[in-house]
## 1
Amino acid sequence: MNQMTKALASIQLLLLDVDGVLTTGQVVYTDSGEEIKAFSVKDGLGLRLVMDCGLQVGIVTGRGSGALLNRCRNLGIDLVFDQVRDKAAKLAEISNRTGIAAPHMAFVGDDLPDIPLMQKVGLGIAVADAVPEVIAAADMVTNAKGGCGAVREICEALLKARECWEPILEQFS
């Protein structure tokens, strides 16, 4: 088992930024001022599969939106911290709420506000189109861009490291 597989296998909580990770980072407004977000259904299935395998999933994002809350409700994610200016400052609260220590957490980010939290958890992950500073701070970088399968890629890596992937594939055969 290589070092990255060991690190992935130790993760109990997957934390995600939203804009640029679960979405492409584009913010779309209707004429009435309503914000619209597009989420990948493949990322969504990946998140459900990791939760079914025993991992917890949470959101830590600087922005808030009804679209995000609806998506989280749909996926069964109830650990949601939105409108957060200092993401790393939420770490103690997240640990207290989940009972999971920082070394057993992963955080996926794409932009500068994500770096401090990435550096405090056990596994910092950058999406492929993250800014260079985030990529430099990351322990792992996805091949896929944010909103375009990056989260699914991470979910599959976590499932394979926990030896949950093959039994999942058998369910769909």
Note: The first helix runs from residue 3 to 9.
## 2
Amino acid sequence: MKTIHKTYRYALVPNEDQKTLLAKHFGCVRWVFNHFLNERKEQYLLGGKSDSYYKQAATLTQLKKAEETDWLKEVNSQTLQYSLRCLDTAYLNFFRAKTKFPRFKSRRDKNSFTIPQFVTVEDGILHIPKFREGIKINLHRPIDGEIKHCTISKTTTGKYFVSILCEVEYEPLPKTGKECGIDLGLKHLAITSDEVKFKNNKYTKKYEKQLRLAQKHLAHKNKGSNRYENQRLKVALLHEKITNSRVDNLQKVSTALIKEYDVIALEDLNIKGLVRNHKLAKHISDAGWGYFVQMLTYKAEWNDKQIIKIGRFFPSSKLCSCGWINQNLKLSDRIWTCSHCGTTHDRDILAANNILKEGMRIKSAGTVDHTRRAEIRPDFQAQAMKREAHQSSVDG
């Protein structure tokens, strides 16, 4: 048994008063994030530095006391503090060159807020601060472990969900002793070195005609009218169906692979770079490679199994078993014959086998490093905390 963090997602059924209070939470969290992001931008442009998290938290306390912004008291104070913490993390990550600069939140996007403490679920009711009666929850499966915190979200289709993070005792899957290489593709989602091919269902293409027609009707409606809102909901529901179908398929495929193999080798693809190709961007996004690799990674960690990523420039599809590299191979060439030894290859199965061989070479050489040398990197978060604490003591 081992301890892991696992998230359970459930649908919420709030009444009208609770919907109003939820809307206040969404709005206040969004306002706090945008207000202090704008403040940081202006301070940095003027003086080359901005307030720390602790100073902004003190400013937030003063805003609650001000007459113009006393409506911030109506929502959970820890939720607002958590929004500030998220802003601080995003801001620091930008200066570490990990992400882009934080964007302002919009009410048109999915709204969410996090309750970091005092979350309980009893008799199908979710109890959180500020909601005295509790919110009805569709508890379709039991919650295991200790609840750490939860995040409530509202989708663009108007549905409410809660994601509850729990610390649970988990029994890893039994070892199989098997290893495989995986080639990610567009015709097939994943091809293993055992010649097993998982179909790419291409959900965007499947619902493309319905989506095009619905968006065409939406373009003809007057923005802000009731008909526009009704048609916008139809478009959003189609997008939601595509997303849910894709995620469900990725969950099933990733679970099947983790159950079957102890070691999985795959390519470290530059997905952000690949989607810049306007001819393939839609198909790559529809396949969901990034999310698929993310699922494989955390499921492997849960079950004490190993994911090995090989270099993105490794010629997996071009390298024959005899060592000859086909430099003239095109994307349209699904089957090719080696000019050196005369062997005919299925490019996808060949790539999967070459990925497995390279992954085993890396493993045997002892160069697999899942932490990416974290032990020798400076702890930016600790350094930032020290700087903030020093600044707070200076400011008094």
Note: DSSP finds eleven helices and 14 strands in the chain.
## 3
Amino acid sequence: MTADPAPKGLSVCLIAAEESGDRLGSALMRALRAQAGDVAFSGIGGHEMLSDGLRPLVRINDVAFIGLGMLTQLPAIFRYIREVADAVVAARPDVLVIIDSPELTHRIARRVRKQAPEIPIVNYVSPSVWAWRPGRARAMRGYIDYVLALLPFEPQAHERLGGPPCSYVGHPLIERLDELRPNADEVLRRRSDPPALLVLPGSRPGEIRRMTAVFGDAIGLLKDRVAPFEVIVPTVPRLKNDVVAATANWAVQPRVVTDAAEKWAAFRIGRAALAKSGTVTLELALSGVPMVTAYKVALFEAVIARMTIKVPSVILANLVLGENVIPEFLQWDCTAGKLADALAPLLTDSPERRRQTEAFARLDKIMEIGSASPSKRAAEIVLACAKNPGSGHLASGAHAVSA
């Protein structure tokens, strides 16, 4: 989709409530300026969006934003939602873009739509309607005019479930392939001995507590079965002490890295990985690192997940590939023995390893890597919505832009 030049003095409001949304919002702001020139940005964002010129609509310290979690009391949350929505309505932007964090941003969008139905609303990052709570897709038609999807299968999911118009714009990882993919020297290191095994137990303290014990036991079993290997555990600075303490008794002492550049360097030389399910599986797949994935939660969470999740895999890379090429060991299957059995062949030139690397080679085509950048595609649709105020008005049954 290609938008006509935007009107001078375009006003765009963006609402983001997490660090990942802040990064997406910042890239979108830069792409909008590149395409439209004179754009005034207001809304809610973190450091990156503020650095790119976002004018805060309310005091930032009224909400616990980057890295601090949601507000702890429901009355304060609802008061904040009302305050932000009222500020958006008062600002009368040409378009409102809500970015991820659906439990917060969708409540703001619903209130804005009720008070100012003429403001087009774009949802950047689709909720996981294809995995659970599919009824959300149809409900979104009441307050969302267009959805910008990060995953290639999401537009079909919204069409099937009766959701708003939706276009795949691309995952932000596409814009970071230089960090993910090895150069010639790094390819040689990936193939040389001792192989580097990446271990990624999660990004929350609870995940680290749950996963490092079983991951450590698996590494102990692996040490007795294969040639020597190096273990690298990428994490974030605030969790380094937790990770160091949790891995202190591993049979192979890991190298714990916290700098982002060190993390990506480890991805580029990694022979294989043992990872908690999540976005990291797509990062590893794009980097060409075969992996074994696992996850454990509390019993009551496992029971609820079994009843509500409606997808053939919880591994993001498997869902994008359309087949369960990456082994996943969940809950009761997440044992040291099973993880070690699945990991061992990935450290050698085995059929199991080749099956994954051959599947990962298809990602460029599936994710349309090499075409327009995700932020550029997203900006084109946002500008098209801004140029058609009221046409996405759900009360009239029309949409802002055709899919």
Note: The chain has two domains: 10-170+370-396, 176-366.
